[in-house]
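Batch 3, record 17
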Amino acid sequence: MVKVGVMGLTGCSGCQCEILNCEDAINRLIGRVEFSYFPLAQDSNGFSDFDILFVEGSVSTELDREKLIEGRKRAKILVAVGTCSCYGGVQSQRNDEASLEEMLRAVYGEKRPEVRVFKPAPLSEVVEVDYELPGCPMDKKQFVYTVASLLNGVEPFFPKIPVCHECKLSENECLLLNGIPCQGPVSFSGCGAPCTAQGVGCQGCRGNCDFPNFEELLSIYDRLGLKGEDAVRFLKVFRGKTLPKLKERSVDEKGA
Amino acid sequence: MEFHIERAKVLPKANLWDFLEGLRRVSPLIAPVRRGGRVAFSEINDISDVTIDYTRTVLPPKKFLVPYRRVRFTYSTEDLSFSSTFKARQQIIFGIHSCDLHGISILDSIYLKENPDPRYLDVRKKTVLIGISCMPDDFCFCLSTGTAFPDGANWDLFLTDIGADYFVSIGSPKGDELIIELKELFRDIEREDLELYKRSTKKKKEAFRNRKLPDLERISQLIELEYESPVWEEEARRCLSCGTCTNVCPTCFCYTSVDVPDFEGKTVKRVEFTTSCQYPYYSLVAGGHYFKPTRTARFRHRYYHKFVGYPYQIEKFGCVGCGRCSAECPAEISMVETLRRLRGEDEEELREAAEQTFTDRPF
Amino acid sequence: MKKSLEKLLNKPLPIDPFKPVRAVITDVEELAPDHKKFTFSFLDEEASDSWSYIPGQFVMLTVPKAGEIPISICSSPTRKGFLELTVRKVGRKTKVLHQLKPGDLVAIRGPYGNGFPVGIMENHNVLIIAGGLGMAPLRSLVWYVLDRRHRFKEVYLLYGTRSYEYVLYKEELRRLREREDIKCLFCLDRFETPEDERWADREGLLTELIPEVDLEPTETYVAVCGPPVAYKFIGKELLKNGYPESQIFVSLERKMECGIGKCGHCQIGYKFACVDGPIFPLWDTKNLPEML
Amino acid sequence: MRRELSINHLSRVEGHGAVNILFENERLKEIRLRFTEGPRFFEFITRERLYSEIPKIVSRICGICYVSHRLASAFAVEDAFGVKVPKTVELLRRLLVVGEFLESHALHLYFLALPDYMGYPGAIQMAKDYPNIVKRGFKIKEVGNRIMKLIGGKTVHGENILVGGFASVPQKESLERVGNDLRALIPELEATLSLFDSLDYPEFESDVPVSVSLDSRDVTEFSDLVVTSDGERFTRKEYELFVKEEVASYSTAKISRLNGKPFVIGPLARVNLKGGALHPAVREEMSLLKTKFPSKNSFYNNVARAVELLNAAYRGVEIVEELLESDLESFNASVEPVEGTGYGVKEAPRGTLYHRYSFSKDGHCTGANIITPTAQLQSAVEEDLKNLVESYSSVSDRELKKLAEMLVRAYDP
Ligand SMILES: Cc1cc2nc3c(=O)[nH]c(=O)nc-3n(C[C@H](O)[C@H](O)[C@H](O)COP(=O)(O)OP(=O)(O)OC[C@H]3O[C@@H](n4cnc5c(N)ncnc54)[C@H](O)[C@@H]3O)c2cc1C
Ligand code: SF4
Ligand code: SF4
Ligand code: SF4
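Prediction for the assembled complex:
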């Protein structure tokens, strides 16, 4: 039996829900895989050795940290699921704009919770992560593919190509050409571009594709009326610190 | 005076819908359909969905010949026996514009000349291509690429709008069979029809007058000689590397393949999916080395391949002037503009060039 | 309809060039860290008999569950009944391959590519220059030439790699060095262990060995394979020493998915590494942009 | 003598909770329900963001009831800017809520709660022996997911739920399919109701003084008014006057009190307060149940949930029918930012939810407050736990722990 764990740190449980939404996969996994740790779905969660440990959520408290470090020690393969665990998630979008103290004051006033808290951080800042499945929430199909690959001892393959790829191949009209700010050209595909299919600009929930051209995108936004800081904040929601400092990039740096 | 030609017929416009209905009785019918602001080639269930009057679809009809995602094989891990359930079906694709027909003949050369792909051949043999005439918009430059008219290509029927009727050219025995099958809808051509047909050619050419068209004379050499031109970098600065230009192109063919095992590890699917030379990973090899490391290199490569690579491989340009890559580009980069800048043409010269393309074309 | 197109479309369906044949691993040898040599034999006798190739060609190897990779053939067509591939572990698919053992099944299609122009090399001197893993395809050429020794004039083998630890085919090379009919010159990037010193003729780069070759350049065909960065320097040095650029052949690698000119990844300028290469005359490197 | 019972990690609840029960000299000294979930600073990260970004950001508060957060925040923004949405938007939003309740309640009932009563650690293990029951849970969830995906774009965090309406709306054919799905689901939901009605719930009487709910017919309708079992009524603007939040040092969730007292929200509170307004077919079904409403037994939250599930499907069918007759062309209102503050309340699956935002005149958020059901339930659940421990003081530690867990779970905090 392959031992699988699903651990939640600080997040919205959306990714764990998506795992529970994989009815087919779960049914087929029963008998091959033992969920030895999955507190959202079951009691008796032994913290034993894991063949694969999926971790959702960002590291935001001392407890998160301890659980993650312990999990890493016991896991042969550790997979970060969701944007929180891969990049820090929405909660980390203003990490660079304020100190932890300011953040706490904005939420709790002068009192402080007893637990020790940190600025929300992705797993990779604390432990080594083997694979990342970003997305808010992560994509079910990619999850199933990853599980299937790992069960077979093969690494999953996710080229970081932009969301435009999937959007165009679904024959959607380009939203940018229709005046709607969209992050498709700079975002990592794999979701099947569900948002753009509905006429909502891609919000970049899966983070950056390889060598994104933010500068050109910002100048397009500017033409569409999304200007200055607002445009940068729009890009920052899910990218947090993975959004590069924009002014310093030039076109012919490697891959640019 | 008796006037009789068997290789063309006339379809009164009023009969078009009956014609489509007739086609659909023969085999599954694919035709352009309007959805929201876009037109897409789709399988037709209801003839009234068909749009005759369109300028360009987002994706070319290529998707019905080479699907963007396809399973090449399934293999068993126990005995490594490779099998494929693929079976081409009969289909009619109706309403293809001239540029796209030329696009298909480019694909024919790519897939069938060297190491022919049986799967493509199977699909192609079972597909009937019916073209229709069109008028250009600001993005079209098929006149430069020599693909504005469907001369001597690979189609079965071609409908040219001559006012009240369609002038139907018959390009193959398969096309002829369809006409015979539905002969009550057609009439023989008369002298006036031929006159109108000739005039329609002129009318389409006229529509390109006073338009900026790229001059493709010696373009292959020019691109090689201007390989280091700053134009590439200037244009590439705006490029988002989003791959739209290649994904919508009727002649692009690049793909990546991955093996996808099932949970039990018993069978594996070999999946091929369309990719683009604009993506960095396209040229990434061991040691993290990118053969096309910069956006400029990737941007330039597309032009290089279209105008230098294809001519070397298949003796035709890889561009049919359909204008999709420019019309769909989110950064509004225009192929015409880039080529024009590369040549260093100013407005005046450009108009001259446009005149010239009327008379002689490279292919 | 155009004649050419009509001809293409009227052909009967060909056999699927994407479909590999089955082979079994008969031997695995660890050559150096992360480098293994695999020996295969075909399950199907017909495939086994009809299998022939030219040095410098490659195959598409299906690593079960992981996918297909292009790998140069390192055995010589002069020795029949088996096929050898040397593979370095660099990523997803090669990692899985390295776990396979004798008796395991794989699937192979090919051979692909043009290979070295062995026909026109006959009756000339042959200078073989290998860097690192470039020794793999050139090993095929070495044995081809040695097995038909009388057809060639002088033969030289220059081989350079990181350190003794990374020397491939150690035992074989040691024996080659003892032969009279091939001259071997070996170098290592840097001497660090006594073994390094014992093994190599020289500390330094391959380019430094070239002037030591005692051949009439115009009478010589040169075959080069190594890391892409080395080509520029090796090419320059060869030209400086008088070797004509139409007689120098280099083997180039690109990303590759299909091996038969359908996937596009391997384009080098206007050529395809898989069907127009992977062996290119040095002249092409001047004229194909981004060749190196 | 001290005796301490602690459940460090509550399983089968969304988020992270822990319970500490402290006895001194055989008497209950203290009960603490702690939420150890890391803070995510939503009140902080929404600041300076454009109003249009708010629903997207706060959606991430909870992956199960994200529709509620998105809608409550959209209500608040629309309130601040004085936006009136067209009828279609209202209907589609209500249909979304149907999807949300199907998904969330089915998840809770079948996957989080039921294993307790059937004696399994979780639904995955239960599936081996009761495949059909678990399958039913999946099926209900699936229909909910399909609705949310159809309208919102994704099953979780659909980005099409925006201030002012939607960027696009489904085709009529898809809506018809939803209607059929819902109709086909009704027998399954009836079976669910009788299953949860038939379970053996622990004997228990809660003495949390007040129940609170929105003043709508049921959860599939929206309202700006809040009603309490004390007969109090107040508007969304007054919410913070009545419901006061404070920071408890031991928990990262804040604690709320209504007029200084703990209060309950959620399925049981809603059915107790507004059960009479449910769909007639549901009321009929309810009259046949073993369980009688109003009920003071918090474990009956589970039955109330099953009641709401059935009601959601019936209402969903009605909404679809109305949508099919309405014009699907106008699916968003124009939104022009003005300076001001707006309020939004909504019944989330686990209880009443409140959002407030202030905006500068160019539409940047200048302040936010979000009161989640979890925060509001905290003191009520603590109160209930106290009561539970006192009434079951004689049972073993293990059993008591188990009971405490089941009780917390019944609230699905
Ligand atoms: C004609 C030809 C002959 C080759 N001969 C040999 C040989 O004899 N021995 C040998 O060890 N290798 C050879 N290679 C390289 C070999 O194909 C790659 O190392 C292999 O495909 C990597 O696969 P992977 O899945 O393990 O790596 P991946 O996980 O796919 O990638 C790991 C790294 O390898 C790169 N890579 C992927 N595909 C290729 C590729 N086709 N070529 C080079 N790098 C690639 C990736 O970009 C990445 O940087 C040859 C390649 C070509 C084109
Ligand atoms: S389209 Fe963009 S926002 Fe939507 S799921 Fe994909 S990456 Fe996320
Ligand atoms: S390169 Fe552009 S214009 Fe040319 S065929 Fe392709 S999409 Fe059309
Ligand atoms: S290399 Fe680029 S331009 Fe050429 S066919 Fe491939 S994707 Fe298209």
